[in-house]
From TrEMBL:
Segments forming a coiled coil: 84-134
Protein name: USP domain-containing protein
Keyword Protease tagged: no
Species the sequence originates in: Noctiluca scintillans (Sea sparkle)
GO BP: any one term: protein deubiquitination
Keyword Coiled coil: yes
Annotated spans, Disordered: 213-264
Lineage: Eukaryota, Sar, Alveolata, Dinophyceae, Noctilucales
Domain USP: 1-202
GO molecular function: cysteine-type deubiquitinase activity
GO CC term (a single one): cytosol
Keywords: Coiled coil
Length: 299
């Protein structure tokens, strides 16, 4: 299956916001933080689990969906986005019919479907180009500069980051405590977005089609899970140890919890999207954002 896109997740998140009293901003901030809610509570298992649904994100993000709905020039963008949704649905229907006819004789209908598919792709490309042009004109574009990922369980694990180096250096830097390595953009995406099929057969996965977007909500210091009070391990702890032994896939799972954009081309403002899942991550993300805003070449 195709991964959920960051643009679609943002569109759905913005569309779900309701309220009678609100504060509207007509200017995007120089640094924008996005929190990917990668954790959920499994009622049956009575424990937290990580969402590892694949989420794709572009190098350049168009944030038109974050603008107030009553902005005059936004009408054209919303019409284009609505048309894009219709075209995606038409493409999926057409592809499903193509798959069926590929198994049966009838070249005439198959050729017609292929032609329709090509037409739909062209229309979709035109709509996407219109959205990008309008976004550039209204200064809504941001360039990806960093990604923070988490490896481990819900209540324990390790954070590290992928950061784009200065423009003269190709690829990305993987900052893992004192260990710093260079990697390609493809390698960064493979870890940050997730490999296809990584969740297959993994009982620790919460199947959620949407990576929920939410405001930053750091955990309170010292809010660790409660443990058994007896001298030996509590029944829940024993059960957890058994699961640890049989669920290696979840133990080693990596999930993107943040992305950040810094040092974009001159035509684009800078952006940093950082998941704030704890005080330590908050400090690190703030440092990344500060460097990007004040010293674009300071990486």
């Amino acid at each position: 299956t195709s991964p959920m896109s960051l643009e679609r997740a943002l569109e759905e998140h913005a569309r779900d916001v309701q309220g009678s009293i609100c504060r509207r901003s007509y200017r995007l901030p120089p640094v924008l933080w996005l929190n990917l809610d990668r954790f959920a509570y499994d009622v049956e298992a009575k424990r937290g689990r990580k969402r590892r649904v694949r989420l794709s994100f572009p190098e350049v993000l168009n944030t038109w969906m974050l603008m107030p709905p009553d902005v005059d020039w936004l009408k054209k963008l919303r019409e284009c986005a609505s048309k894009r949704t219709e075209l995606h649905a038409a493409l999926e229907r057409n592809q499903a019919e193509l798959n069926e006819h590929s198994k049966e004789p009838g070249l005439e209908r198959f050729a017609t479907l292929v032609e329709e598919q090509e037409t739909l792709y062209k229309k979709l490309a035109d709509v996407q180009q219109a959205i990008e042009q309008e976004g550039a004109q209204q200064e809504l574009l941001y360039q990806l500069e960093a990604v923070i990922v988490h490896r481990g369980w819900v209540d324990s694990g390790h954070y590290y980051a992928y950061v784009r180096p200065p423009s003269a250096v190709p690829g990305w830097c993987c900052l893992n405590d004192a260990k710093v390595e260079f990697c390609s953009h493809k390698d960064m995406l493979r870890v940050a977005e997730g490999d296809p099929g990584v969740d297959e057969g993994d009982p620790g996965v919460v199947e959620d089609p949407v990576a929920e977007m939410s405001q930053a909500s750091p955990m309170e210091p010292g809010s660790a899970p409660e443990s058994g009070q007896a001298s030996g391990p509590a029944p829940q702890a024993v059960s957890r140890l058994q699961e640890d032994e049989t669920d290696e896939a979840e133990r080693a799972a990596e999930a993107t919890v943040s992305t950040s954009w810094v040092a974009p081309p001159e035509a684009l403002p800078s952006i940093s999207a950082a998941a704030v899942l704890g005080p330590v991550v908050r400090v690190r993300a703030a440092a990344l954002a500060s460097l990007g805003a004040s010293d674009p070449e300071g990486w």
